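Run log, item B.
One chain of 447 residues. Sequence copied directly from the ordering sheet:
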Amino acid sequence: MTRDINHPLPHDSLAASLLAAAYVLEQVMDRGRSLSDVMSDGILTMADPAQRAAVQDISYTAVRNWGRAYAVLTELTGGRPLKPIGMGYLLATSLGLAVDPTEERYEAHTLVNQTVVAADSQVALRPGKGLINACLRRFYREKDALFSRSDSDLAARWGFPAWWVKKLQKEQPSGWREVLSASYGQPPLVLRVNRRRCTVDAFLQACEREGLEARALDGQAVWLPKPVPVSRIPGFADGHVSVQDLTAQRAAPLLDVRDGMRVLDACCAPGGKTGHLLELADLDLLALDVDVKRMQRVSDNLRRLGLLSSGVTLKAADAAAPDTWWDGKPFDAILADVPCTGSGVTRRHPDIRWLRRSGDVAAMSQLQMKLLDVLWSVLKPGGTLLLVTCSIFGEEGEHLLARFMGRHPEAVALPSPGLVLPQAQHNGPGHDGFFYARLQKPPLTQA
């Protein structure tokens, strides 16, 4: 697919959405871009929210199901690369919908017809519409046999790269299947109520007035069993609530901040945990992130929540280079939500599993240690550092903590959740995977 996906199709048609989603899939799988980056492309900035929602749903589903769809596509085409490349990605997008294990979104004849219509609308793809039609019809005729043959491929069977599956088999020998299953599906819609602007009870009542089912969870968390766009969430635009996973909501309370504390949020974007800290106490807070664009998103989020104040400083800077941001005054508490592989949040970011490589885990662990060494040096004696990674791999969790304690034997490990594995939705929303460790620097001894 090219960036020029103009076509004569009705913009609310499935064919138009398939074309746009095929462009997204190509950008992710062929160009290595993240889903969120591609979805923010100008070409996909659509005036109709319903159309954008449809493209996003199809794109995320196609990426999530890439393992099975690619294996089936290879079988259907005899392993021959399709030319032009856009034809392969259009077919893979439709197969991504067809193989989805959670639901059948479209009738077979509708999906086949609309994929052919999409191909026919593009000059470059038009010669391949017959092949696309034949492949999809064969898929529906031989679906069970195709699934059976592809099950020998780990990526097709589990929806994650083979190295990822094998790594979990080694690290979680008794529970790796449950972890993969919980990491696969769509994420729940869990919200955090902003205690400075609303109460959980008041928000639940607002949801009831709007006809939305909402259930209170722990703390300030509320679950909407039937997800809706944020535009439909009562009070969202006014900063009454934020979207945040249940496990992620454990971070700010663990740091135990109090009014007047000097706090560093070292790797803050997109700002969910930053906002939570400021909802809990009036702080002298410095929030850093190396990415200027992501810092703008943090600013926007805090402004919506009504939390930008004279005590809050936002700075685009590398936390590993303190000479660019530190004034020499140590911090009472530090939130170190360090960069990681994101292996615990693949429901929310299904592209992560395909964009990561096995060597990324060790590389991330080295970066994490570098950041922790720096942040430990700017923590006040008696202060607390909270290490957070949204990863389920040992090198970014237990092993990282052990290495840090070996380098800093004076550090005191405080009671912490440790590794929280992903949990699937059953009677509740489930949650993502995280690792938490609280570390205290010993106070200065009295002379």
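Observations after the first pass:
- The first strand starts at residue 189 and ends at 193.
- Residues 189-244 form a domain with the Alpha-Beta Plaits fold (CATH 3.30.70.1170).
Flagged for discussion on Thursday.
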